[in-house]
Structure formats: structure tokens, C-alpha cells
Amino acid sequence: MPPIRDGNKKNLAEQEGRILLAISDLKNGKLSSVYRAATIYNVPRTTLRNRLNNIQQRSQTRANGHKLSESEEESLVKWILDLDKRGLPPRHSLVREMADYLLSQRGNQRVGEKWVIQEYFDRVREVISEYGILPEDIYNFDETGFAMGLCAAAKVITGSDRYGRPNLLQPGNGELVTAIEAVNSAGWALPSYVIFTATTYYQQSWFETLPQGWRFDISQNGWTTDEIGIRWLQKHFIPHTTSRTKGRYRMLILDGHGNHLTPQFDQICTENNIIPVCMPPHSSHLLQPLNVGCFAVLKRQYGRLVDQRVRLGFDHIDKYDFLTAFPEARTMAYKAENIQNGFKATGLVPFDPDHVYQKLTVQLRTPTPPPSRSSNSQSSCLQTPQNPRQFKRQMTILKKRINERTTSPLEMIDRAINRLYKAYEMSFNELLIVQKEVHDLRAAIEKEKRERKRSRAQISHEGSPIAQEAQELITSRDEASQPISAVPVESEHQASQPRVRAPPKCSGCGIIGHKINRCPNRTTS
């Protein structure tokens, strides 16, 4: 069952009420001693004294580890909820991009890794609490790729007079193989699911020395596909884990790869009481137990076995050789200690997010606004601010001048100015968000316009032409479509015939062929 929440929050609220009553009695003169007030109302004396010195309650005070200001966070939340209402809830990467854009307006700043990772651990905590998931029912799965004939990088011993890294002989087979692996937090691993690069199905020799429970699949490039991901879930993960489930639900930690986020994959998980939880992008080196505890050892051991075959004179590694070496390397990598250390190092079992936060090198600090200058002139104070920094600087000057002209601070004016500043800051942040959305939309429209201007005419060709052949076809088609010129051109037959002299014409009658001495129209002198 989900853990029972304690009443700590309720006790703090009751204590805060007693502190407010004690402060009221001290200010009204009903009590004159802090010690007596703390005793009567049963509150800590130091807490009561701090509150009298205008030190706010810790839960009401903003922590120092925030890069975004309070108004920036409120604007970001408003933008997220607006997208959600439109049916477009943003992913972590898009929210992070927008937060980085807001920070870029105040300088070259970006949010840290902890900002996204904390949301992931909050999600894990909520799932464990909501579904009552036991530590023994937490799994992690991912795929890892191998080039069958390539050795892993390793340190070697060479002569002291060598400069640079020595070359390592490789068998030369770069065919890709993908292995889908899954591990349990208790320290055991599911049988491997191997994907070969092939178009025809399996060879009998592959199964001769294969461990029990292993499963094969094929694809044209050796990578996983949506269909392979579904088959792995239905035919491999569910049958191997159903009988070993301690509670009702299983939690499956996975990355955000497209093959893991299909609607059918999610539906099958729902029907079988499997709760998938996706890690943020670019965080598997910190949050994925397989990456942290097993994959590095697996590839190192496999590279060592390939290197041994090279030294024995084998210059080629085929699928059968891979299936001989890979199970041995897998046995060395998937030890119970390595698997459990992976879940511990990623803060999952036992649940300890601080174990991961300590590895982050990013130190988050609230940005300090620039100090106001005493030499600011009145004209600069009256200028319209162009960004939140200029506006806050002017507000600081105004507050200072108001305090210098009065003996006591004007609380009403001070509150009004603070509200005005917050309203302006939120409006400015919302304007920045809208400007970025408009910029992205215009870029997408311009790209769409360029796409529409491209020629969609088809080329008549059998097979798959190379680029040069396609250009020749386009050129010949364009020449054939040009209009015919009106200038008469001699045909080839006419140009090949010799020229024949025209018969003589009679000068008297103009008839061709008349002899001039016989023409009746001949004139005599």
C-alpha cells in the first residue's frame, strides 16, 4: 500500500497560528517577555524572536537555488497551462528551451541540469506513492548497439619511444547488432533480445549455444522499430516479469526514444499494470541504471573477447561468432552487484535524488540585480525602461529618494511600487514568450513557402538514378518543352542536293523556255 503521509504539514500550520497570537500579545502589551510568550503558546523561543525581527517563515521564503525569478516562473507556468488547454502540453525540452530564452534576456545564462532532473524525481515519487510500487517491482530497459567486429578502446602497453596512440587491428566487420536489455532493482536481468541486420530470417546455427530464454529479431539496419518494441513488450518483458511481480504494479524506467512512446506501447502497459516513466533527454548517463552500472562493462568485456580472437588470427567476426562471445561478456556485466549499484547510483533504489544532485557540477544561484548608481541623473530616472533590469534600477532610485524625503518609510507607497514592478515584469516576460512563438511561427511559414516553390514534376526513369543522370533527364525535358523558332531552316535532304541552274526566261514574253529568235513578241530594231 502507498506510504501514509505524516502530519508534519498540519503541525507546522498550527504552530504558525500560535506564533501569530504570541506576536499579537507582545505588540499589544499583554505580554512583555518573549520567554513567557513562547512558554504560554508552546512555540520555539528562537523562532518567535526571529519573527519579531521580521525574519519570514522558511516555507514562505524563496530559496536561493533559483535561476528564474519568481515572476519568470509564474509566466512560464501560465504559458505551459495555456498550451495544455489547447491540447498541446509541452515536453521537457520545449519548457527548458523557453526558460533558457527568458534567461538569455538577462545575459548569457541557461538553466542547469538539476532544473529538469528534479521534475523527473518528483514524477517517480508520485508514481511510487500513487500506485504503491515496491522496490522489487522497479525495472529499467534500454537498447545498446554493437559493431560485431570492432574492439572497444582500451589501454595497451607499447614502447616508450612511441608518440601518439598505437593502432589496434580490427576484424573489419562493422555490421550492427542491437541488444534490448532489461534489469530489475533486486539484481537480476531478463534474457537478451537480439536484433540482427538481415532481410531473411534465422539460421539454425544461431540457436545451438544460445542461453535459454533469448529471443531474436531482424531489421534492415539492425535498429529497433515500433513493431519490434511492441513484440519485446508483449512476448518478452511481460512473460518474464509477471510471475516475479511482488505487488500489483510494475514501474518501467525508459528513455524518450520514439519506439517507446507509441500509443500501442502505452496501451499495452496500461492493460498489464505497467507504469512507464520516461527520463529527461540527455540524462541517461545520470539516471539510467543500465548505462551507469552495466553497459560500459558489457562493451568492455565484449571488446576484450573480440581482441582475443584477432590475436588468434581470426580476421572476421560473423553472427555465430558474436553469439559465442556476447553471452560470455553479458555474464560478466550483469552481475547482481553491478545491477544493484546502478539503481543505487541513479537514486532509484533506495530512493535518494540527492545522490544524483551531488554529481551535478552546475551550482544554481539566484542572479543578483545590478546595484543602483548614486550618480544617476533625474533624466535617466524619467526614461522609459527597455528591460526588467533598467526598470528595477529605476525603482531602486525612486525608493531611495522617497526614504530620504521622509523620516519613516511609506509602506503603502512601497507596496504599490512592488506590485507595479511585479506586474510590469510579468507582462514583459509574457511579451518575450509571445515574441519567441511569433518568431518560430514566421520561420516555419517561410520554410513552408520555400517547400511549396520546389518543383514537384516527376522524372520518368526505371530504377534509382544517380544525381548526374537525374540532371541530364531534367535538362533534356526542358529542351523538349522550348517553343519552335519561326526562322525557316533547310532540311537535311535539301542541304545535301547540288544546286541546279534555273532555265532561261524569254525577255520578250517572259515565258520560260522560249527561244528568243522564235518568240512572236520579239522586237526588232
TrEMBL record:
It is found in: Nucleus. GO terms for molecular function: DNA binding. InterPro entries: CenT-Element_Derived, DDE_SF_endonuclease_dom, Homeodomain-like_sf, HTH_CenpB_DNA-bd_dom, HTH_Psq. It holds the Pfam family HTH_psq. Keywords: DNA-binding, Nucleus. The keyword Transferase does not apply. The keyword Disulfide bond does not apply. Residues 364-392, 448-467, 474-525 are annotated as: Disordered. Residues 60-129 form the HTH CENPB-type domain. One of its GO terms (cellular component) is nucleus. Residues 373-385 have a biased composition (Low complexity). It comes from the Eukaryota. PANTHER family: HTH CENPB-TYPE DOMAIN-CONTAINING PROTEIN-RELATED, TRANSPOSON. This is HTH CENPB-type domain-containing protein. It comes from Talaromyces stipitatus (strain ATCC 10500 / CBS 375.48 / QM 6759 / NRRL 1006).
